[in-house]
Amino acid sequence: MPEKVYIFDTTLRDGEQTPGASLNVDEKLQIARNLEMLKVDVIEAGFPFASPGDFEAVRTIAREIRGPQIAGLARAFEKDIDACWEAVKEGSNPRIHTFISTSDIHLKYQMRKSREEVLEMTKAAVKHAARYTSNVEFSAMDASRSDPAYVAQVFTAAIDAGAKVLNFPDTVGYAIPQEFGAKIKYLMEHIPNIHKAILSVHCHNDLGLAVANTLAAIMNGVRQVEVTINGLGERAGNASLEEVVMALHTRKDFFDYYTDIVTQYLHPTSRLVSKLTGVVVQPNKAIVGANAFAHESGIHQDGVLKEASTFEIMTPSTVGLKTSSLVLGKLSGRHAFRNKLQEMGYHLSDEELNKVFMRFKNLADRKKQIFDEDLLSLVETEVVFKSVPEYYRLVDLIVLTGTMVKPNATVKLEVAGELKTHSAFGDGPIDATYKAITDLAKSKAKLLKFAVSSITGGTEALGEVSVRLEDEGHIVTGQGVDPDVVTASARAYINGLNRLHFLKAGGPKGQKPEKL
Ligand code: MN
């Protein structure tokens, strides 16, 4: 009988520590809802003591999400653990995840504590957490560089104090698979009360070995793995959820383990996380990269056309990748439209559906063929990215450009309900449009990044624009989509300005947790 491996997702905690990625409460909640559809076992929603924003995000997720357990991270201090419990306690099966370093190098230079002191702190912290709940996880930070005999001693004490999950992190991404697996085997053999708990690992990718180390650990007795969507996380990131899950799934002949993950949601979740964090997925990334299922060689293409299994070890549909298919046209009704979105995994409210349907009708008038990717993009920009109020709204845009004229843009913008119009010249039509918007919005935001991509290929494709803006220390990503790249650019810029306005007005804010 295959044994279950529990999936502990830390996209919202370690993943959010990715440089440049930060999420507000609404965005975290959207990701949490996707993780719930994916059927992860545990969502680590944040680090409640680190900032009020983090506390609020964890509490909101604990209140809203019913399927997975909701965990919060806490250092081995009473005040951290108290704040953590306060944030997670309304969850369906809340978990306190407390941690302390066990490596001599951390003890000597960072904590200036003896092994005995750390052992006592572990017992006290786990006991304190266990007063709130029996669902307590304990992590030994920098475990892979710690003395295994000492970790075994600390874990034995933590289990006695009430910990149910013992996590052995490769915090600095230093381990090698065979060595790491052997350490897990050692722990399984040297913790006398290990039958009362399960072992977990948390691997970092500094040497590109996070997934390999995670799999080696599973083969030696680990039954919980801490992973992130797209492998996000500190520095080079964490073990990627999709890679670990699909390795177990694809090589069932080799691994006698299973997970509860609904693999068809892997691709949509990867996209959502990438959009909301602004961290793009490299095209050659395993499982979810744009090229993961693209065959370039003629010999490979010929084989796949004759029989997919000749060169494909997984089918794209297993991970939820839809190939371009003609779906709807301008005569499609609201009912078919709603059905199509549900098929794609989007359950929208009536109000959301109306908004997307209007954009769809408008699009269908201008673009003959509407593909799944187009719909996905519309839903993402109209619903996922409209999670902030529209302080600025694009009403109209007229652009004059050519080889003999100086590009000019006239923008009509609704600013807090008031209509304003302004024209500006620029080096190109997008430059002119951005100048007009900047003047209307009186914005001082700096444009850090501007990227255009076409969604389905061909000149009639939807243009998708992503911008990164900075103002007064806030950095946001804005997204826009339209068959006209100038209009898509305007939408992206205005979306970014709305996000900045929301943050500056003191809206719910996902402060980056202090780095640990
Ligand atoms: Mn980590």
Chain-wise SSE layout:
Elements: E1 3-4, E2 6-9, H1 25-38, E3 42-46, H2 52-64, E4 69-75, H3 78-88, E5 95-101, H4 104-111, H5 115-132, E6 136-141, H6 148-161, E7 165-170, H7 177-190, E8 198-203, H8 210-219, E9 224-227, H9 241-250, E10 257-258, H10 266-277, H11 298-306, E11 326-328, H12 334-343, H13 350-366, E12 370-371, H14 372-384, E13 392-400, E14 408-415, E15 418-425, H15 429-441, E16 446-454, E17 463-471, E18 474-482, H16 485-504
Parallel strand pairs: 1-10, 2-3, 2-9, 3-4, 4-5, 5-6, 6-7, 7-8, 8-9
Antiparallel strand pairs: 11-12, 13-14, 14-15, 16-17, 17-18
Helix pairs in contact: 1-2, 1-10, 2-3, 3-5, 5-6, 6-7, 7-8, 8-9, 13-14, 15-16
Residues 14, 171, 202, 204, 233-234 line the site of manganese (II) ion.
Brief account:
With 516 residues, the chain is an alpha/beta fold.
What does this structure look like?
With 516 residues, the protein is an alpha/beta fold. The chain folds into four domains: 3-277, TIM Barrel; 293-322, no CATH class; 334-384; 387-504, Alpha-isopropylmalate synthase LeuA, regulatory domain (Double Stranded RNA Binding Domain). 40% of the residues lie in helices and 21% in strands. It is built from 16 helices and 18 strands. The strands form five sheets. The chain has an eight-stranded parallel barrel, surrounded by seven helices. Strands 13-14-15 form a three-stranded antiparallel β-sheet. A three-stranded antiparallel β-sheet has the order 16-17-18. Strand 14 and strand 15 form a beta hairpin. Helix 1 runs antiparallel to helix 10 (266-277), helix 7 packs parallel to helix 8 and helix 15 (429-441) packs parallel to helix 16. The two termini are 39 Å apart. Manganese (II) ion (MN) is lined by residues 14, 171, 202, 204, 233-234.
